[in-house]
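Whether sequence alone determines local backbone shape is best considered at the level of individual chains. Part of our work consisted of pairing the sequence of a single chain with a tokenised description of its backbone. This step matters because it turns folding into a mapping between discrete strings. For completeness, the protein is quoted in full, as a sequence line and a line of structure tokens:

_____
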Amino acid sequence: MSSQLLAQMPAEKDVPETGPQFQTSPLPESNKRSPKYFYTYIERQHTFEEDLKNQAFMYGLAWLVYPLSQPKIIRNNGGFKQYKKNFGKIVFDNDEPFWNWFVHPISGSQLYLYYRADGYSRIDAFQMSFITSALFEFTVEVLTEPASVQDLYQTPVLGSILGVGIENLSLYLLNTGNPLSMTLGHMINPATLLPNFQGKLLLVPLTNFESSSSLGGYLSAQVEF
């Protein structure tokens, strides 16, 4: 290139800037997003070993809780002599409706929610609840009375139906962000507080701008264990 052409070219500092120019400013506080928790259920496949461990845990818990909840009955009319007499029998019980239509379904709902918290699908949670309930009826409750026909279906079947309703209501309450509502959500579904609950997500915003996504601007999630 000749020296004349070089002399005609403008210096770098003289080259005009092109393109639109933007002035940046801090985002308003109202548009900022902070990480928050979102509650849901994350389903996964379980191995046969995991199923056995969960059943063993609930079975051991039943042997711990039931004798403590029935001390007078076991002392006066129960025990292992009664256990031997009741073992293998199944009858239609004469319990009050309060027990058959309230206590047992409530117990079954919490069984169902325990398995749901561990990642079981609704069908699998029902099946696991049915097994747990049957083991209790035939091998634990016989300390005081024979296994009950009503309890065999009312606990897992009505309990799972009730559990689905509690599940949906608790998720709604937990995701309101209101401390009082969240406390109530944990109270009706205490399995959400267990270490094995896999549905507590930490939502982390990737942008501070308003978003039209279903998560309200929270574009990534981290599973909290």
Q: What stands out?
A: The first strand starts at residue 36 and ends at 39. Helices lie at 3-8, 48-69, 71-77, 80-86, 97-117, 122-139, 149-174, 179-188.
